[in-house]
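Appendix B, Record 12. Input sequence as logged:
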Amino acid sequence: MLASLSPKERRQFRKLIVREGTDPMMKLVDYLEQNLKAFDSESYNELREKALIKISKSVPTDQNKRRLLSSVTKLLSTFLINQEISQDEQISESLLQKQYLRRGLKGLFESSHETTQSNLLSAPERDFYFHQTQLKLSHHAYYHATNKYKERDILMGLKTIHKNLDIGFVMAKLHYACEVKMVHLVRGESFTIELLDEILHTINNNQYFNHPIIKLYTEILSLMEQPEVENYHRLKKNWLEISDLFSKELQQQLFTIMLNLSWFSCTDNRTAEMYQLYELGLTSGVLITEGKIDSSHFNNIIDLGSSLNQFSSVRQFIDNFSPFLDVKDDKMENIKTLYEAFLLFGEGKHEDALRQSIFLEFNDVSYGLRAYLLMLKCLYESKKSKGFKEIEMRCEAFKQYLQRKFKQAIINKQIKQENLNFIKIIRLLPLASASRFASINQKDLLKKLNAMKHVVSKAWLQKKIENLV
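Logged structural output:
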């Protein structure tokens, strides 16, 4: 929790400790702050124990140490809650309204309610979050407004409640149905979505549910059933036209859905289409959340751009957007070096890429996996017997790395298996040939690869096998 704070937030938290904390609490936080850079997230428990030993003179017993940790954690939790409240006006207003009602301050409640309603309606968002908030406001207005006994207000209030309840529910149901269908499309896993068929039947040609967001969700579900390029581009056009109606969070979720749909629909030029989507995501700001970009999106942009030989554009992207990665400053140079090695590899400069990448180490598994894969590819592409011999040694190190990260619950079973499958194939590549005298036959190796359900860098492996002579 402490490591997640920005420098400004840490200064603010220290002021809170001065006001409400104790001297041992300040000593503990001081020590943690001074040593955070020397530890990664996987070894924070070790840092905590070192900190407790350091301040053992002022906190002599184990019971007092536990109390100290609990006190700092509680104060830090309070600080984070206050940060969230200060940054979200809706939360602040909602909490105030509860207090007004609890204290019988009807006039203040109504004034606050009108302000919240006005702010909500002035914003462009009209997704299910909007209708959920409207439902809550309508509920409070119906049960707590001073004029609730006027007949026209009773009927209007109930009508508003039902409208927000119905539209919000249908939107939310369709949104999560799209997520279920996408998991089925990508991973082949699913479950029966209760009421979905009834909802789709009800909203068809029903003016009550005539809403652009509901229409978009039904188009997404339809495309998932039968991915087709023309329908995809029609959907994409509609999505871009109404994207402002969604909150930032839902925009990001829909962006991921559109990425997956482009993969399944645009079979002839999926790489170019996905790259274009990412360009839209960057220019619109949808990929940036609180000043950060997710490393998976960052890596995808580099992969796609490199596949299209857009090396100059990708290098410009790295320069412009690497500061948005959620990594410590002292790790950034290693990451940028890894990306440059990846681009050199794409340009066919395999030995230069190997020199850049072979000594890189990363605690972050997303970069660690890329570094291992790149190094093994470079060793193979170098076509040197020494490199082939080293492949076996590096494969064993990579295998142990995967087992360790899996045991630490940092990667899941699928990630472990798809990388282990890569290791199985690349180990055999130097021994394979199209010759009938080869110890491993080209066709047999290709058959082995195609039989694997999940393999990382499968296209690269397939190309290498097909190029064997």
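The chain is about 75% helix and 0% strand.
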